């Protein structure tokens, strides 16, 4: 069970209250009508799925109903940091 | 999709209607079928948990930016008290209580017959981008009190309810049983749950079961 800090409620809550919405910082092609199938496919289907540091989006479903980002180690499940949408992570994977 | 965008002024002229039934139409709370008043009449006098439905109140959901001065000032003027900006807090003045729901959302509970008037006052007082929705029919308030009320809540939610973590006045939305509820501590031993209409019956059944070992007293 993860103990997750919600940056909007500003306190730690149980994982049960949240929903993980997958990888963060995925940019939608600016002009979907004129991008290539490869670009669109990349956007829709392909994810990094790293072993180690991952940035992911979480949703505080039963609380404030806001999205935010979490940097988490996929091997240890350790949450390195929590930051709001629009902000950049401080902890990033090396190399 | 319409190409034309409505002029700024019309945004505040959205259709609002009084949702309060009048004449022969009877208003029924989400727990109307549970006949709490009949249960209250033949109840035991003592028990560790006292349950009461605060029914047919006006529930207004307010959304707006804390940076919009007109929004913050307008709300303060209409309610006579400023919106709580500190996360997970609530304020109360007379018959009005305001719960912080998220940084740009508040739930205002008012007497049922004042909801329409307050909604209109807000629309008149506030300029700019904001939203007020009367959701009175969609949810209800259940009040739990008594020395064992907190024990019933501990069975139902993952929130930390210790007084050091959950002081009087705190509000938190969380999972409740297998549904959700917005929990507010309104007194040392008094708790208020905002539950959805569709979950009200389930939560009522759950609360009866969870409070059986302490003795449940239903108040009308």
TrEMBL record, chain A:
One annotated GO molecular function: sarcosine oxidase activity
Lineage top rank: taxon: Bacteria
GO BP field: tetrahydrofolate metabolic process
NCBIfam families, sorted: soxD
Name of this chain's protein: Sarcosine oxidase subunit delta
UniProtKB/TrEMBL annotation, chain B:
NCBIfam families (alphabetical): soxG
Pfam family, one: SoxG
Record InterPro entries: SoxG, SoxG_het, TrmE/GcvT-like
Domain of life: Bacteria
GO biological process, one term: sarcosine catabolic process
Protein name (record): Sarcosine oxidase subunit gamma
Species classification: Bacteria, Pseudomonadati, Pseudomonadota, Gammaproteobacteria, Oceanospirillales
Organism: Marinobacterium mangrovicola
One GO molecular-function entry: sarcosine oxidase activity
């Amino acid at each position: 069970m993860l103990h997750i800090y919600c940056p909007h409620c500003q306190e730690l809550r149980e994982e049960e209250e949240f929903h993980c919405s997958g990888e963060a910082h995925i940019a939608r092609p600016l002009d979907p009508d004129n991008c290539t199938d490869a670009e669109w496919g990349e956007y829709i289907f392909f994810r990094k799925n790293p072993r180690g540091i991952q940035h992911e989006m979480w949703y505080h479903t039963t609380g404030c109903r806001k999205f935010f980002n979490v940097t988490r180690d996929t091997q240890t499940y350790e949450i390195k940091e929590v930051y709001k949408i629009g902000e950049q992570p401080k902890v990033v994977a090396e190399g | 999709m319409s190409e034309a965008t409505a002029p700024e002024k019309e945004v505040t002229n959205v259709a609002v209607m009084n949702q309060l039934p009048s004449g022969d139409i009877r208003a029924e709370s989400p727990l109307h079928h549970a006949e709490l008043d009949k249960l209250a009449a033949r109840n035991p006098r003592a028990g560790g948990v006292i349950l009461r439905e605060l029914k047919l109140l006006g529930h207004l959901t307010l959304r707006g930016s804390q940076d919009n001065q007109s929004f913050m000032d307008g709300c303060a003027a209409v309610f006579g008290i400023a919106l709580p900006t500190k996360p997970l807090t609530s304020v109360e003045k007379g018959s009005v209580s305001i719960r912080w729901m998220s940084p740009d959302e508040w739930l205002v509970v008012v007497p049922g017959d004042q909801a329409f008037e307050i909604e209109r006052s807000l629309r008149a007082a506030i300029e700019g981008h904001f939203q007020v929705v009367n959701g009175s029919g969609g949810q209800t308030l259940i009040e739990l009190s008594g020395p064992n009320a907190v024990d019933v809540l501990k069975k139902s939610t993952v929130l930390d309810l210790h007084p050091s973590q959950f002081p009087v006045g705190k509000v938190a939305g969380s999972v409740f049983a297998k549904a959700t509820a917005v929990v507010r501590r309104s007194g040392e031993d008094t708790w208020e749950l905002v539950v959805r209409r569709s979950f009200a019956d389930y939560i009522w059944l759950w609360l009866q079961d969870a409070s059986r070992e302490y003795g449940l007293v239903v108040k009308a």
